[in-house]
Amino acid sequence: MNGEKQQGTSVVTTTWNEKENIQELIRRIHAALKEIAHEVIVVDDESTDGTLEVAKQYADVAVGKQREGQTKGLLYGAKLAKYSTVVTIDSDLENPPELIPLLLEKMDDNDVIVASRRSLPRFSERWAAKTLGKLCNTTDFYSNFRVYKQEAISRVELRCGESFGGELLVAAKKRGYRISEVKYDPPPRRSNPRIGSSFRANWRINIASIKCLFAYYLLK
Ligand SMILES: Nc1nc2c(ncn2[C@@H]2O[C@H](COP(=O)(O)OP(=O)(O)O)[C@@H](O)[C@H]2O)c(=O)[nH]1
Ligand SMILES: [Mg+2]
Prior knowledge:
CATH architecture: Alpha-Beta Complex
Number of domains: 1
Helix content: 25-40%
Radius of gyration: 16 Å
Strand content: 15-25%
Distance between the termini: 22 Å
Bound molecules: guanosine-5'-diphosphate, magnesium ion
Shape: globular
Number of helices: 8
Order of helices and strands: EHEHEHEHEHEHHEH
């Protein structure tokens, strides 16, 4: 199935105003993966702080496009991947790149591995874990720190709008890909997440969960 793709790992991250983190993230990915063939792909959504210019200096591929959100950005990057394995990772250093080799090891018997945070910060994420997470074999449905076989992500056709990566997991599950997880203790969170303040983020994530449940049960 991965016929045309080379053996190796493409690490995809999306950014919206992450200038202070992107160089450090790329440095840590290269250090963690120095033993294996890999590339770093950054998909930037019209950052106004110069993220794309910094990414162009350090990433293997750095593209800017109009702002369409995290899920579309991750899919866009996965389609550019030249390797047979795709890692998705947040660009804000809340997902430690040093964990990637362990995640790759666990791919032996699986098609998707989710790096699941041991504690979830938002009630909307805890609710999603009990519903969508159970359906998709993970305790952290909205972690976008994941490893995919390239075809398990790049062929997805998104229909839910912004789902914070949720629809990518639902699509993989519905197409029969085997999903498993590795748990980790996340570092302290930053105080100003890009997806919004606590109330706004919980609201947006709950809407995304309803759309993902709809997609799971009702869409082909
Ligand atoms: N391409 C793109 N990336 C985004 C957008 N909003 C957030 N991100 C990225 O998605 C990742 C997670 O966002 P964040 O706000 O930290 O979510 P949280 O960790 O759930 O609080 C970060 O790498 C952000 O830069 C967006 O509109 N477009
Ligand atoms: Mg974050």
